[in-house]
Amino acid sequence: MIYVSRLNGEILAVNSDLIEFIEANPNTVISMTTGRKIVVNENVDEIIVKILEHKKRIFADNDPIIKHNRNEV
């Protein structure tokens, strides 16, 4: 899940695996695979960074080498 904010400031947690595409016209609109569209304050690049950071955390937590190295510290 990633956090984004609606135009009114409301914070939402969005399942990034269900994002189909993101467009800017001029507001940023996230289109979900469910057909739902969410208008948010963040720009396209900010959302992509949030998704990449989220994926890195997921894969790092599942990587046995990274887990092993964390346990040594």
UniProtKB/TrEMBL annotation:
Keywords: Cell projection, Cilium, Flagellum
InterPro entries membership: SwrD-like
Superkingdom of source: Bacteria
PANTHER family per UniProt: SWARMING MOTILITY PROTEIN SWRD
Annotated protein name in UniProt: Flagellar protein FlbD
